[in-house]
Amino acid sequence: MWDAALIALERFADPLHIGMLMAGVLAGTVIGILPGMGGIASVAILLPFIFKLDVNTAMVLLIGSVAVVHTSDTITSVLIGTPGSAASATTVLDGHPLAKQGQAGRALSAAFLSSLIGGLIGAVFLTLSLPIARPLVLLFGSPELLMLCVLGLSFAGFLTGSQPLKGAMSACLGLLLGSVGAAPTEAVYRYSFDQLYLLDGIPLVGVALGVFGIAEIVDLLAKGGQISERIGLGGGWIQGMKDVMHHWGIVVRGSLIGVWAGILPGIGATAGSWMAYGHVVAMARDRERFGKGDIRGVIGPESANNSVEAGDLIPTLLFSVPGGAPSAILLGALYFYGIQPGPRMVQENLDLVFTIIWGFAFANAIGAGLCLLLSPALARLTWVPFGKLAPAIVVTIFIGAFQSSQDFGDLFVLLGLGIVGWLMKQLGWARAPFLVGFVLSKPTEQYLWLSISRYGAEWLWRPGVIVMGLLLLATIVWIIYGKFKGKQSFDEESTEGPPALGKTASILFTVFILVILTGAAYEAISYPYLGAIFPVAATVPAIFMAVIQVVFDLRAPAVGVGPEARNRTRTAMGYFLSLVLYFFLIWFFGFLIATALFTFLFLYGWVKMPLSRTLSYTACLVGVAALLGWMLGLYWPEGLLGGW
Amino acid sequence: MKKIGFKARRSMCSLLAGCGLALALAAQALAAAPYYEGKTIQVIVPFPVAGGSDVWIRTIAPYLEKHMAGSPKFTVRNIGGGRAIPGMMEFARKVTSDGLLVLVSSATNYFPVLLGDKAAKYDFGQWKPLLVNPVGGVVYVSPGSGVKRAEDLAKAKDLIYGGISAIGLDMIPLISFELLELDARGGLGFKGRGDARIAFERGETNIDYQTTPAYNAAVVPLIKEGKAIPLMTFGQLDDNGNIVRDPAVPDLPTVPEVYEKIKGKKPSGKFWDTYKIFMPSAFAVQKILWVHRDAPAEALRAFYAASDRLGKDKEFVTKTSKILGGYPLMRGDRLEKTILQAFQIDAQTQRFVREWVGKKYHVKLD
Fold this sequence. Notes:
A: 2 domains, two-stranded antiparallel sheet, B: 2 domains, 13 strands
């Protein structure tokens, strides 16, 4: 086995391979920085170029970009609170507050170093487990995977913040949203309302970008000014690295959680990052700062989401079952070269496996270095008045959301969840459990059903299930104990300053949620039995919780909402409507014209940028957007009134 | 009128001859330029990147570029999701008779048509098939099932099968189980055939099928380790439309053969009618490349001729046999009748199938 490793290593002495690796890393880094674009975009862009290359070079190129996407996606998560990719939404929770406190440098360097180490640990684990990987994966049956998903969901309990009822309902809403689309159990399409778009469910990218990205952008615009009030990154860089060294336990544990999230089918990078985050919160003695800028909340998920990609390679290469969307493309590329991943891979193509592993490891190193180099410049963006950055960010987010299904539905999801996310943020509804519920909804249901249908009730007595059941019980007890003790636990950073929305708004929102839950439960009853169980189980408890919450809201003391706060709310709504306007402009005039109009109006009319600057900014942005669209193979529909 | 002098007539003649020659040469030059010279053909794949159809076209495209007259470049556009309907509709909307837009289709696109699902608003009658690639399907069981040969299936108990959707390709194995009256339960909801295969390896299902490429790559090693037992295939079609043994796995009997062995007579009945109707588009003509039916004859010829040449290209045959299972790439024009027939279904059988998936698998079709 080790001579194959050496042969693969020698390949990297060839400048062509190094060059391809760098090209892949560059592509992955740039794509990762753009919000909403993750591994799949970076690989999809490179795909047309591989067909002239030999298999080793092609794999090096592709793995180079896959490996670094989760390193560079941290940048927008930290700096502008918009997830660079869905898995990096976790980093927003603590990374962004740190940036607002002027500690962007610390957050970024800690994130990059954790990503690097996480990726390397993942690669080492991958190598060591190659001989036993197949039996290892097969040990986990549906019941064990179910318990893992439930465990992941329970971690959401740590993230519900100071209003656990709302947090729990958040999780239920996430589960409900996740059940839209084809049910894993019956051939029924749930909540599709005759829309072809909804048959495949709601895309994760739109949800992450909407709930965290749009909500944050609207907030930042309403607040005005720059992202960071404090000037000076100072010695933040060194501090960040010291933090990683100090919390090395979190790095190791996060990486291991990530690797396993990649290895086991059903748990992806997003679920893996959340589980790592939840575990960090759970194990922490003092939890007050989580959600407000605790560096541990950056280190844990960042080590996890890089090692996930390493773990993903196991099902991809050894079982020919892609671990995630980028691995699916990797798989397709291997088929193109006549390589068939599977049980024979380790015997017949071990050197190729090692080429991929080495490529992964090197890419992680180079990518982290590249990001560290770029970050000082990028961190300065936090000093720029946000209004000037906003159009570029908004346009990129729209592109990122649109490339999931290339359908206007993507933008609906983005904006719809954007407003919901913003409201949740203002009214103290934790968003982390929402995303966790959303991501784990389908796997949990699938494994639950598979366990029951295959094993009857016996699945509960399997040793693995019992062990994890005990762990689950311990987790729940721990959560309740913590709340009981009044431990000031994790609280998502709410908007700064006085609350923008008062008691009435809070009650109305809760009632709105109650209506949605009831409607969903009612609709679910009409589904055939197996397809109905999960949505009903998700909505009915939540309905009770919502009623209780309404009672609480009614009895809560009236919150004075000053004129300043009311003003902020109005401003926020105004900005949100401008995004909706952008959407309609795209609908009527096509993407490029709409982008030009939106950018121009926003900068000239609102931000009051001088005309010449506005024009050049607009021209640049439209050009870049067109280039990006072309590279990603995006086909924006023609505007209703013509135009492109 | 002045008579045209002899000298003038001679020069006029040479002038005319010269023009004639020039015209003839020009005409030849124009006629000689292949239709696809310098052109790019866009392929719409109504499935996500790296799916079976996507890999198929990306694998053969470079060879088409090499062997097609005019060496057109191929670009691939993936439009996945929505049961492949949006991708099909985009092609239907945008395709013109210039032959520069083509479509890859697979079983997922044919079944809605056969089932009379109104959601599938596309019409294959508007298009012409250019290239066709059969795919095979192999059924295998785990040693724990107690089944050693296909005949044992009749006595087997508690067969559990993992599938994706009752109205997708899984319908063929599910119909086969009904036809053979097996004690088999179909559990649906897996994300893909790969996931179902892992469940088989875990021991959560004990009967499974894979398409031939996946079978060769992932199941044959299991067979060698004694962890899987191959039983039968769904068969292929011969030139007369009869179901014959799959040339990629000629040692295994087909489903109708197994029926005969178990029941002692030739297959008949409603499930057999369904099998006969759905199997061709499911496997025998699974992958089809389509173009607008009014595309110029030269464009069509370019594809057909390339297909012939590809069959003789050793590199192509070796490389693709691993990926595509070893079935020859075939000319669409020779299979037009088969394809046309593959999309036909009589009202009675359609009603029967719709009722069956509705009652047993709770599928509601418009």
